[in-house]
Amino acid sequence: MNSAIVESFAQMVREKNVDKDVLAGIIEEIFGVMVKKKYGQEANFDVIANMDKGDIEIFLERTIVDEVEDPETEISIAEVEEKGNEEELEVGDDYVEKLELSSFGRRLINLARQNLNQRIREIEKELVYNEYSEMVGEIIVGDIYQVRRNDILVNHNRHELLLPRSEQIPRERYRKGDTIRAVIKEVKQTPNGPVIIISRSDNLFLRKLFEIEIPEIYDGIIEIKRIAREPSERAKIAVESQDPRIDAVGACVGMKGVRIHAIVRELNNENIDVINYSDDPIVLIQRSLAPAKLKQIELDEAEKRCNVLADSDQVSLIVGRNGVNIRLAMKLTGYEIDVIREEKPYEEYEDDIELVELREELGTEVVDLLIANRYDTAVEVLTAGVDALKEIEELKDDKAEEIIEILRNQFEEE
Q1: What 3-state class would DSSP assign to 9?
Q2: Cα separation, 362 vs 354, whole angstroms
C-alpha cells in the first residue's frame, strides 16, 4: 500500500504540477490521524513520506517504564524485551518503534485510504478551479461529448466544460464529436466542484476572435473600442488605429475580406460591420447607421437620445431586418435613436412609371380615366396629390386616396 499511495500522489505531481511538499504534508496528516486513533491523542510519532523513493514510514516514540501508567506515551521494559530490540535499553530511555501499516488493521487502513481519495479529489477540484480561473477570457478548443436539451458538455484537456443554451449561437447545430471553439466566460465554485462556463454568444468571444485573426489588434496597434452584437444575426464593432498610417477598418477586413470572412465563418455566417470609432457621438451615430444616408441628427446628450431625419427610402436601411440594425446602433453608441421619416418629393425620383404599366394594380378603368384627365405617369399623379384627384367627378374620395397609396407603394418597393 505504501508504494501505491505515494505513486498516486507522485503522478499528480507530474500531471498537475502540484508542489511535492504539499502532497507529502497531506499524507503525513492523514496517517497521523490513523496513529492517533490507535495509540491515542497524546502519542508522540513521526510520519515520513518520501515522494522520491515511493515509501511511507511511521515511527512511534514512547518512554520505557517499569509499570505503564499512560499507554499513550509509555511502554513497559518487559514489552520492549519481548520485541527483541538489539539495543540495550533501560527504564527512562526513549523507545522508537517503526510501525507497519498492517499492524493498524483493515478498518483503519480503509479509513485512511478513503480520506486520501477524498483529499485527492479536493486537490484536483482546486487545481481545476485555479487553472481555469486564470484562463477566463481566453479561447479554448474542445470536443463535444454530450449534447443535452439545455446545454452542451465539452471535453477540454480531460476536463468538463459547460456551454449553456444562453451562451450558444442561436440556430447553430452542435453534434457529438465535433470540435468547438469558445471563450471561457466564468468559473463557479460549487459543492460538487468547479463549473466552467464557456460562451460563443458573448461579445468577449467576438473580441478574442478579432485578436486571433488580426495581428494589429493583438499587438495593440488597433484598439477595439466598442462591440454590439446579436448572435447569429449581426454585429457592429468600432475600432480605432493608434498609428495614423494604418487604416483600422481596412486592416480588420483584410485583402478581399479574407480576415473578416474567417471570423464570419466561425460565427455561423453572422454579419459583421466594422466602423471607425469617433469620440463625436454624431459622427459615431452616422457611421453606425451606414450605409443609410442621414439628412440630419439632433442630439440630446443629457438624455442620451437623438432624432435622426432621413428620406423615407432610407428608413428601411436604418432600421434593418427586424430592427436589428438600429438596435445594434443604439447599443454601440449608447443613444436611444428615433427615426423621423421625411417624404421625398416625387419630382426627385429619376425612374418614373407610366400609368399604362399599372393597369393590373390600378385597374384599366382608373388608368384610362387618369390619362383622360392628362395624367400620364405615377409621379404626375403623386405630385398633383389627393385633392386634385378628388376634383375628378368620376372618382370618389376614398378611391382617390387608394390610388395615391398604391402609387406610393410602387416607389417604396423600388
Answers
A1: helix
A2: 12
Task: Find the Cα–Cα–Cα–Cα dihedral 99, 100, 106, 108, rounded to 10°.
Answer: 30
Residue 349, Cβ density class (10 Å: 0-12 exposed, 13-18 middle, ≥19 buried): middle
> In the prediction, which pLDDT does 353 show?
85
Q: Are the beta carbons of 389 and 404 closer than 8 angstroms?
A: yes
| Strands in 242-282 per DSSP E | 271-276
> What CATH code would you report for 346-413?
1.10.150
- Cα–Cα distance for residue pair 395/373, rounded to 1 Å: 11
101/112 Cα distance (integer angstroms): 11
Decide: pTM greater than 0.70: no
Q: How many residues does the chain have?
A: 414
Q: Quote the CA–CA distance of 248 and 24 in Å, as a whole number.
A: 55
pLDDT tens digits, residue range 206-248? 999 999 999 999 999 999 999 999 998 999 999 999 999 999 9
Determine the residue type at 48. Answer: I
Q: So where are the chain's domains?
A: 2-131, 135-199, 203-277, 278-344, 346-413
Rounded Cα–Cα distance for residues 389 and 386 (Å): 5
285, 329 Cβ separation under 8 angstroms? yes
Q: Which fold has domain 203-277?
A: GMP Synthetase; Chain A, domain 3 (3.30.300)
User: Same CATH topology for 203-277 and 278-344?
Assistant: yes
What value, to the nearest 5°, has the Cα angle with vertex 194 and ends 190 and 196? 120
Class of domain 135-199: mainly beta
